[in-house]
From TrEMBL:
Residues 67-187 form the Cell envelope-related transcriptional attenuator domain. It comes from Rhodococcus oxybenzonivorans. This is LCP family protein. Residues 44-60 have a biased composition (Polar residues). Gene3D superfamilies: LCP protein. PANTHER family: POLYISOPRENYL-TEICHOIC ACID--PEPTIDOGLYCAN TEICHOIC ACID TRANSFERASE TAGU. Belongs to the LytR/CpsA/Psr (LCP) family. InterPro entries: LytR/CpsA/Psr_CW_biosynth, LytR_CpsA_psr.
Amino acid sequence: MLILALAGMTYYLDTSLNRVDALADYDGRVGDTPGTNWLLVGSDSRTGLTPEQEQELSTGGNSGPDRTDTIIVMHLPSSGGPATMVSIPRDSYVSIPGYGEDKINASFAFGGPQLLVQTVEEASGLHIDHYAEIGFGGFAGIVDAIGGVEMCLDAPIDDPLAGINLAPGCQELSGSDALGFVRTRATALA
């Protein structure tokens, strides 16, 4: 059963991927660094969503250029040791090439994945070898593909803007509810 689930998830992910060249060369690019570095990005992209899906996921429609909500550098050492992950707060002020000082997530809005990679490389001194991004639809789709996620809440969460009304206690969240949970800001607990 586990093999069938893994095969289904692999097929879903492979057929759902949009490929972008986020690793463009630029003058003064950081040279190779030991190990392999991934830039993992969660964005508020609604690309590919139908109006019905936008309503189901309570995305609020298009809110301008895509922004990054989550930015993580994952380092895989050459030695085969455990991975290290560092989350970069989206509101961190950095120098964005061609734009000056601003929040790091603005680099994605200004220049897409390429400028975000360049900004992270220049701010961290790490060479980024791979880039992976997930938007709203992809996040909800992955949660649904694995059969939901268990969440235990101490208090209810009612956030009409995020499209959730969750009771306290343990429960299985669907993709749309999980997306609403990670996006909620309009509650006393947020």
